[in-house]
Amino acid sequence: MKILHQIEYKPAKVVGGYTDRILRVDLGKPEITIQKLPPDFKNKYIGGRGYALKLIWDGTTRETHYDSPENILVMSSGPLGNEPAFPGTGKFIVGTISPLTDTFIDSNIGGHFGPILKRAGFDALAVSGVSKQDVVILIDGDARTIAIAAAPAYDKETDEGALSFGERLLKEVNDGELNDSMAAVTAGKGACNARFGIVNSLFFDVRRKRLRSKQAGRGGTGTVMRYKGLRGIVVRSNLSKVNANNAIDKEGVRQAGSKLKAVVSKCDTQQLHLSTWGTTGLSEYMDKFHLFPINNYQYGQSPESPKLFAQVFLEKYFDKKIPDGCYYGCNLACAKGAENVKLTRGPKAGRVVNIDGPEYETVGAVSSMGIFDPHFVMEYNWYCDEYGLDTISTGVTISFFMECVQRGFLTAADTGYELAFGNIEAADRLLHEIASGTGFGKIVGQGVARGKKWVAERHATRNGTSQDAVMAELNKFGMEIKGLEFSMYITKESLAQQGGYGFALKGPQHDEAWLIFIDQVHKELPTLEHKANALKWFPLIRTWFNATGLCKLPWIDVRNPEAASTAEPSKNIPTLEYYVAYLNATTGSNKTLQDVLDDSERLYILQKLINLRHGKGTRASDQIPQRAIGPAYFNEYEARAEYYDEWLQQQLGDKLVPASPEQRHKLLMEKRAEAYQNLCDIVYEKKGFASDGIPRRETVEKFGLMDEQAKQLLSRLGV
Amino acid sequence: MAASIKFLGMQRTVTKTDSIDMPITEKTRVNDALEYVRQRYPELPLEEGMVLVTVNLEIAAPDRILRDRDTISFLPLIAGG
User: Which residue in A501, A659, A665, B77 has the fewest CB atoms around it within 10 Å?
Assistant: First the structure.
């Protein structure tokens, strides 16, 4: 490999979960520097998402877009990542200015990269600049070198694939062998051609004896990576994984970890069975409660859904005998995978591959296209990973265009072929076109927000109607907010989850607030006040997980039996106490759960400021498609008329509901839109925002964020 | 009179059926249904605090009286991905 630039360094020791170092790589110059952090940096910004937010806030401006040279691609774990004594500590986040939302995005990702990066001496990696040629970054904590090298050229097929290229790259830098002292992140050719490119995290699984992959799927982080000319990053460290965080109180870490592992071990097998079938188990429960997206979220249930339930994947594809944690020590072990699956479609038909997944979201992306073929789910999963495409945004965008055809906004003349719900061949063809940036895929690869504009212009021109009128119609069913496509849950029947998606700072991704079952099924949020409190509390605690290098699932998807006797069981406070104990034992702090929430709120407000800077932070940006609020079209209303009529009657009290179904549908949508606006008002008040969704000055000052940039921003906004 | 008990997810693997019918009287409660299933399928984990009981897709209290053709399910405590 041709080294273009290299430095030698002495890896900083991890103490209390931190190295207090950020590795900064400017690909434009090229330049490699190591930034030593002042002591209060970690206290204020924690790690992970917090570090990414602070670097983006300071290092970019309102004019920075995804393809601006100064845009920064940040990868950071957090103080609690990198500890096998505690479950779920392999997470790191990838943060940047998004090609989809044009504001801050981050996506969390499992595997070994974050922990090894820390053991190699860095709490975070920040890549800026755009390289003149395709490069890779090699961070070798053992050889004590950091290098920018020309991306090796293997063969076309390998070079275009994120998984294939990553495997060859790792082998090349390690004399042809794979082992678990190394990990890589890569982005494939799809990330060059679509705005929703992903970053793959590749790690060696000693049990399966092969490379496995996890994905930072949301918001186009891989697109930024490829735009910078960065094909891959390899990290290496042979330092021991045991006590790798050099915790201040090692016994405290062990005790907290033992308690959580005991809960996971006892309860998962009685609850969601994530250790057996991963997140695919959700499909059945979502379908049962009309939450499973069918035909671009028109319907939440289908007689064909059982073809995509977990048992199908377990029997046909998953290897049942192997614990599948994406990092050491996680006994939830939900990262399921399949060996030796033969591809039957696409350019690699006939090839036998290993597939990591599918997750529930990928299954939902396929059902959203009206497809119920489990083998297609497997192939779609593999191709998206290999190409470097987000399975969610890919599926939701294809679904949107399918509905444009269904409703007559597009014809086969526009798309090049029949693009109908349930048409596997068309969906498959479009997937490959998106990856290669050819044919209709070139349009679809821009995502739903830009797709709406393209359709509106085309349809209006052809029919002599106004673009605004067409756009108003497309806004009913174009499932995006702030430019990001929805993740795979239907919100029509849960006002709290409408807010969970609408207020989510990055756009409608459920890692900020997933309240759908708590609200719709468990009925734990009966009033606007309850919903608003949840919409403040859950995003804060979930932010903390993304700042510390932790997976949320051992907390949120394994209910501690002791939670049943608490005031709000869904918060699972008894388990959260283990996390706070783990934090204090690792870092030597003495924090309470409220301290943790306060730390998170600082990050939340900082992210809000970045959104405001980029024009995505006001009430207008929190508005959601009509389909997210209720049945946008009459066919959707008809499918659940009994439920909707009952809801409408509750709203009207003693008044009679209108006689005709069409009138009931119209009134229903008006009432639901009104309810969402009422929710906005109360949630903004809880969060310390004015009714326009902008934080009050005192809210920004409370968290020590009123720097010169914030002052100017708020002044410009009239605050 | 009878109520239907539906099995979901891994419960189906244990019981090897989608559902069973349970004869009920005017005094049969949700708790009785739980006990009925526990006796028929002792290997099925239905510990208190581990599952939610729903009747006709609504969360149901243990002392709720069952009615003819009610559908009972045992749900895991799903709180988000």
Answer: A659
Given the structure tokens 């870092």, which residue do they identify?
A: A587
B14 touches chain A (CB under 8 A): no
Chain A residue nearest residue B10, CA to CA? A273
Give the position of tokens 């997976």: A551
Residues of chain B positioned with their CB less than 8 A from the CB of A289: 57
* Cβ–Cβ contact B63 with A under 8 A: no
Q: A340 and A452 share a domain? A: yes
Local structure of A400: helix, strand or coil: helix
CA angle A158, A159, A160 (to 5 degrees): 95
Range of the domain at A511: 495-558+590-716
What is residue A319's predicted lDDT score, i.e. its pLDDT? 82
Comparing CB atoms, the residue among A309, A311, A521 nearest residue B59 is A521
pLDDT in tens, B34-81: 999 999 999 998 888 888 999 999 999 999 999 999 999 999 888 876
CA distances from A630 to A63, A300, A309, A425, A633 (A): 36, 12, 26, 31, 9
What is the token pair recorded at A135? 């490069």
Q: Give the C-alpha separation, A275 to A88, whole Å.
A: 13
Question: A570 and chain B: CB distance < 8 Å anywhere?
Answer: yes
CB-CB neighbors (< 8 A) of B77 in chain A: 271, 522, 559, 569-570
Rounded-to-10 torsion of CA A477, A481, A487, A490: -50
Tell me: pLDDT of A149 over 90: yes
Q: Do B80 and A270 touch (CB under 8 A)?
A: no
For residue B80, give the nearest of A281, A523, A556 by CB distance.
A556
Q: In this structure, what token pair is assigned to residue A20?
A: 């207090």
Q: Indicate if A292 and A229 belong to the same structural domain.
A: no
> CA distances (Å), A535 to each of A157, A568, A713, in order?
46, 14, 25
pLDDT over threshold 80, residue A484? yes
Domain identity same for A479 and A502: no
* Chain A CB within 8 Å of residue B8 CB: yes
Task: List the CATH number of the domain containing A551.
Answer: 1.10.599.10
The Cα A60–Cα A71 span in angstroms is: 6
- Terminal Cα distance for chain A, rounded: 54
Q: CB B48 to CB A564 under 8 A?
A: yes
pLDDT (0 to 100) of residue B47 = 86
- The whole-number average pLDDT for the span A184-203 is 98
Question: What residue spans of A507-592 are helical by DSSP H?
Answer: 516-520, 528-548, 553-556, 573-587
In DSSP terms, A150 is beta-bridged to A135
- Residues A563-622: tens digit of each pLDDT: 999 999 999 999 999 999 999 999 999 999 999 999 999 999 999 999 999 999 999 999
Token pair, residue A361, equals: 């979201």
Which three-class secondary structure string do you get for A487-520?
CCCCCCCCHHHHHHHHCCCCCCCCCCCCCHHHHH
Task: List domains and CATH numbers for chain B.
Answer: 2-76 (3.10.20.30)
User: What domain count does chain A have?
Assistant: 3
CATH number at residue A359: 1.10.569.10
CA end-to-end span of chain B: 39
C-beta of residue A392 within 8 angstroms of C-beta of residue A488: yes
- Residue A428 CA to residue A336 CA, distance in Å, equals 23
Radius of gyration of chain B (CA): 12
In angstroms, the Cα distances linking A34 to A126, A142, A147, A214, A481 are 10, 17, 13, 27, 37
Q: Which residues of A touch B49 (CB under 8 A)?
A: 559, 561, 563-564
pLDDT-above-90 percentage for chain A? 98
What is the mean pLDDT of the segment spanning A491-515?
96
